[in-house]
Amino acid sequence: MRGRHLITVTALAAMASLAPSARAGESVTLRNGFEMQCHHHARVEGRIRLYLTPGQDNYIEFAPDDIAQFQQVPDPPAQAQSPDATVANSSVAPPAAPASRPDASLSPAELHQLLMKSGGEHNLDVDLLASLVKAESGGNVRAVSRTGARGLMQLMPGTAAALGVDDSFKPDQNVRGGTAYLDSLLTRYHDQLALALAAYNAGPLAVDRYHGIPPYRETQAYVARVIHEFNRRVLARESQSSQAKARQAQVSQNVASASDAQSGSVR
Questions:
Q1: Sign of the alpha-carbon dihedral angle for 69, 73, 75, 79
Q2: Fewest 10 Å CB contacts: which of 105, 167, 174, 202?
């Protein structure tokens, strides 16, 4: 499923063993012409990891041939959120969460079903969509940012209208529209997740203007937060899958042993 190959997830123990390059910040130029910023980079098992934060758990991985050059740059000054942003999120304006509305949130199962349906229609990982919803609204159906973004995936009215969303407070419409919008951004930026997330947060015009992730602290923090949550969810899912396979193998072994014992007693 698209989305899984964009962020490489490894065991936390392996992450901890890496020795990162100590830099205040780097500008990375890809061979396709895009530019982005990272905190530092390191070569791991023949791949280049661009770390978005000082730690080891938020990174994007590229083949060495995909990268044209690195340049060390100073930490960019704080800037206001781009005025051309088409989607606002909780990293810029914490959404309101009215306690008086009984429909302010969905159950985890209900939200999962909505994300599964929309993710299946657009071939997007449900954990990626869940990570975005968590960053945008925390699962609050009635969330409204100070800039007017609404609902689970924080759609601005203009964006919602363009996506055919009549009511951004209806979970199915909001998730359908937000997923379609993210899918269009991934297509626009050739499945480069960090760029698509930056455009979702700050607007495509800002990404195009800077030829990469804009130097807005809010946007860079947003991209790192979504990627971190996505990595966490995928790690948990893969761990559960491994445990389930181990239990199934043990059951099969027990059944085989019992069958052999029964055959021996008959003889």
A1: negative
A2: 167
Single out the catalytic residue among 26, 136, 218, 229.
136
Tokens of 95: 């959404």
Q: How many residues does the chain have?
A: 267
For 107-137, give the DSSP string. Answer: -HHHHHHHHHHHHHHHTB-HHHHHHHHHHHT
Q: Are strands 35-38 and 40-44 parallel, antiparallel or unpaired?
A: unpaired
Per-residue pLDDT of the chain (267 residues; tens, 9 = 90+): 554 334 443 323 223 222 333 345 888 887 767 677 778 889 988 888 888 777 776 677 778 888 888 888 765 454 444 444 444 443 344 444 433 344 556 899 999 999 999 999 999 999 999 999 999 999 999 999 988 999 999 999 999 999 999 999 999 999 999 999 999 999 999 999 999 999 999 999 999 998 889 989 899 999 999 999 999 999 998 887 777 777 777 777 777 776 666 766 665
Q: Quick one: DSSP state of residue 172? A: H
Q: Are 197 and 214 in contact (CB under 8 A)?
A: no
Whether the model pTM is above 0.70: no
CA distances in angstroms from 247 to 92, 109, 236, 240, 258, listed in the order given: 44, 25, 17, 11, 16
Q: Can you read off the two tokens belonging to residue 216?
A: 């807005």
Q: Are strands 59-62 and 26-30 parallel, antiparallel or unpaired?
A: unpaired
Distance CA(182)–CA(154), nearest Å, equals 12
CA distance 165 to 173: 6
Side chain identity, residue 242: S
3-state secondary structure of 106: coil
